[in-house]
Design brief:
Blueprint (H helix, E strand, L loop, with lengths): L2 H16 L9 E13 L8 H6 L4 E13 L4 E14 L4 H5 L6 E9 L4 E15 L2 E12 L5 E8 L5 E7 L11 E13 L4 E24 H7 L7 E25 L10
């Protein structure tokens, strides 16, 4: 399913729900959440190196450090969250990346680098909440600043019939081994809360994040003899840039606890 269809489906679910009037007993004013879960990418693969790096079956542990929601109306609220991604693993289609060199070179020392750890990711937006008694459902839409990059791939080329030795690195950045770029993303989510009491609730959610930037990749070729003398010198003999056809996305499933803070509803007493 394409990212456009996912966004359209989410909005179609949200529009009729927003027409439901607020529950009279809903007095929630503040909500704090701490969640953890897993995330993965489902990007489309192609022959473009930028899309190959992005379509790397990335999986990782997602830890939402804190999400705060402030309800400006009984059902409508604003939210902000900080997320971190402590670990990641990926698999890249190496054959497509090495195929252009195999006629003239022996390809050795293939190495697939996992994505670098991401710094805190900030997300903010609008959410709608409905329900009664112990069960509540929340729909959210917002934007995030996200810097978890695709993985990197590196290999060594040894010339057939000559002494040429090169190191080739495919990376989303123009300098290999550097940190990722911060991109603006669309953030969608659906949460279900089960309230134990007026203070604590169990929260489960599904989220979707879509980048607004197209995938990109740089292929850097370095002379291995120069690299051996100078250490990890980034002086390249060739660099090629690709812009992909697709944009990165992320699905996530999380579970955790919510802490609720209510405000008493004002009661208008009749004047005697």
């Amino acid at each position: 399913m394409s990212h456009k269809k996912i966004v359209l489906l989410f909005l179609c679910c949200l529009i009729p729900v927003s027409a439901i009037r607020a529950q009279e007993g809903l007095r929630l004013k503040h909500q704090l959440e701490s969640l953890t879960g897993v995330g993965f990418r489902a990007n489309r693969a192609s022959d473009n190196p930028a899309d190959i790096l992005a379509a790397n079956n990335l999986s990782y542990m997602k830890l939402t450090m804190l999400r705060y929601s402030f309800y400006i109306k009984p059902n409508w609220g604003l939210y902000a969250s900080f997320d971190i991604y402590p670990g990641a693993s990926s698999e890249i289609d190496e054959a497509k990346l090495t195929a252009p060199f195999e006629d003239k070179y022996y390809v050795t020392n293939k190495c697939n680098y996992d994505p670098f750890e991401s710094g805190p990711t900030f997300t903010a937006g609008l959410q709608y909440r409905l329900g009664k008694n112990r069960w509540f459902t929340r729909f959210r839409v917002g934007a995030s600043l996200y810097d978890l990059p695709p993985g990197e791939f590196e290999c060594t080329l040894k010339g057939k019939g000559n002494n040429e030795v090169y190191t080739v690195t495919y990376s989303p950045n123009d300098s290999p081994y550097s940190d990722g770029n911060i991109d603006l993303n669309l953030d969608l989510g659906i949460s279900i809360d089960y309230r134990f009491n007026n203070v604590i609730a169990l929260t489960a959610e599904a989220g979707y994040r879509q980048s607004f930037a197209r995938n990109k990749a740089y292929m850097t070729v370095r002379d291995s003899y120069t690299q051996m003398r100078d250490g990890y010198s980034y002086q390249s003999v060739e660099q090629t840039y690709w812009k992909g056809k697709g944009m990165s996305n992320e699905f996530s499933i999380n579970i955790g606890m919510s802490f609720l803070m209510h405000k008493k509803k004002r009661i208008n007493r009749p004047v005697r």
